[in-house]
Amino acid sequence: MTKNIIICGGGVIGGSTAYHLAKAGAQVTIIEKDGIAAGASGGAAGLLSRPSVTNRTPLYELQKLGFAMHVELSKILPEEAGFNYDFAFSSRAHIATNLEEKQNLEHLIDEYQKSQRKAEWLDSDILQKTTNWIDGEQVLGAAVLPGSASVDAYRYTLALYTATERMGGIVKSGEVTKLIHEDQQIQAVEVGSQRIEADTVLIAMGPWSKMLEGNISQPIPVQPLKGQILKLRPKNPVQMYGFNYDGNYCVAKNPEVIVAGTTEEDAGFDTGITRSARDQILEFALNFSASLENAELIEQTACLRPLSQDGLPLMGEVETIKGLYISTGHGRQGILLSPSSGLAMSELILNGKTNSIDLSAFNPNRFIS
Ligand SMILES: Cc1cc2nc3c(=O)[nH]c(=O)nc-3n(C[C@H](O)[C@H](O)[C@H](O)COP(=O)(O)OP(=O)(O)OC[C@H]3O[C@@H](n4cnc5c(N)ncnc54)[C@H](O)[C@@H]3O)c2cc1C
Questions:
Q1: How many angstroms separate the Cα of 304 from the Cα of each of 113, 153, 251, 271?
Q2: Domain match, 273 and 346 both
Q3: Distance from residue 261's CA to the centre of ligand 1 (Å)
Q4: Most buried of 92, 154, 204, 363, CB within 10 angstroms?
Q5: What is the pLDDT of residues 329-363, one digit of tens each?
């Protein structure tokens, strides 16, 4: 039976699901209230970090497949969309500032080498020469782990939608205000005064997804977690490296643009930029890269991550309403996780089960008491 599918929310999660559904031949309509990638999907740093070999969280497979699919997508999606989105590989230095941190990182390097993956320790002087910009006084050295990558998050998300439209998908402007269901089957969505019929609906509205929970009598425990990032233009072009320390990062997106972040702020739906966040991120960057002292600040942005109550995404079908699905709560890694999430959700919607990834840890019904 042909499905009539509506996706609520034009971010990267809705876009990737739409892309995979359209590839499989399904008819899909996306409804977005503010513009494609208007939320975090357009403002994200766009870093694609490979999962660590010591990572054994439920997210591991989703991250691993997400990274591998990004590499493959970068070879076809620019052509399918008709424009580039700046996919690039870069090496990542995990910094130690003292001996204890160095020992922990050396242990991590051993784990990588045991799994036949290249990883090495660089003392600060070698790191400085190799990268030409990771040269802060606090740097004792760093573990350089297998290459990560990055994209321009806004253009990547736009590429997913453009490719979907070229395959017959439809993007509509409007705010979904209500879900309509009868006899435990989804029937339609309401967009203002308009009713749009559908036998399948996906809620992919990022942190706004919670606003529909009253309609379905079950919790969608997702809240906004504000983050701010800076884009810096170094005085001289830099090597394609990035560094991480204590959850923060500074990464060369290209030799002339470095992205630095980030904050985690409980500020509701406020997306204003602040001077204190700017100073905090600059202080972090300068601690590890004295060369950035002369960099030009070219942009400061703020956006909202969709953070779930237990930190894991909600992905799957709503227990009590047939044809209604949720995919949200991808937190700090929605861009990385978008290809694997989109593929898995398209499989679930079209076949009633997934082949690529086991979604049981992400069951959206796990919060029903
Ligand atoms: C500062 C920052 C940096 C980040 N950096 C990275 C990174 O480097 N790598 C990475 O992997 N991830 C990163 N992330 C996380 C990533 O951006 C998010 O996980 C991801 O964008 C979430 O996508 P989404 O589609 O779920 O939500 P969103 O992008 O928020 O999309 C939801 C969409 O739904 C729309 N919407 C809301 N309500 C309605 C309605 N009623 N009707 C219709 N449309 C509606 C919104 O307008 C929005 O466009 C970062 C996030 C932040 C904040």
A1: 37, 14, 20, 7
A2: no
A3: 16
A4: 204
A5: 999 999 999 999 999 999 999 999 999 999 999 99
